[in-house]
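User: Sequence in, structure out. Go.
Assistant: Echoing your sequence, followed by the structure tokens.
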Amino acid sequence: MPTHPVFTTQTTALVTGAASGIGLAFAKLCRRHGLKVALVDVNDAGLSSAAKYLDCGPDTVRTYTTDVSKIEDWKDLKARVEMDFGLVGLLMLNAGIAPKSGWEDVEYFHKIMDTNVFGVINGISTFLPSLRTQNTTATSVVITGSKQGITNPPGNPAYNASKAAVKSLAEHLSYDLRGTKTSVHLLVPGWTHTGLTKAPGIEDKPAGAWWPEQVVEYLENKMGEGAFYAICPDSDVTEEKDKKRMLWTTGDMLEGRPPLSRWRDGYKDDAERWMEKQEV
């Protein structure tokens, strides 16, 4: 499997949401390839633990406590990272939150959008100019989305909307950077055992979930292939099943069904039968 050219010892990676989970696993991958890594998170204690876990000195790994929802934090972050490591060549915008609340809780919507959407917008607007200047070497932007932003299951409308927006932003960024040295990749994890997704009180990984390291390995392979979409399966849901679910969701609009029909009485049995027969 080819390796994406951004994974070289000359590259500095910046990873948000790096204190744990997929962000930390991606930082570990970067270190395996010899990259210098800026670990970014709002959780100061988590960052300290992540740095100890990576077991590297300040010449190769540093931590930066940052609220990605605040553009002023990003400006300070850019100055500090460039002073420590030089220009960032691999930007992973991974930070996200997934609290649940109701339609009447406007603050819930603001909080999720500020972190999940503006955390991405702030990162792009801050680092894209310097990525553009590195026009003789490969650079990359990796943005973490969610299947909930594609198939839109009921239960957390603010989170789903935020990840649908992230998908749209990543797609537009990829288009705008076509023909340049900067590749863009949308990571869409499957069921992954992280602090964001695990059930309260459940510490052991469920059999159907992937470890963050498995997700990152899948991403690395897709980046090596030059793919934009890295839509991960897991131990319960295959790539084929993901495709069928996405096709059914698109069909709601094309076939005149009500939205989220896969979960509605009167349609969910039809959806199951259709997916059993459908070939992709």
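User: And one key feature?
Assistant: The two ends are 24 Å apart (CA to CA).
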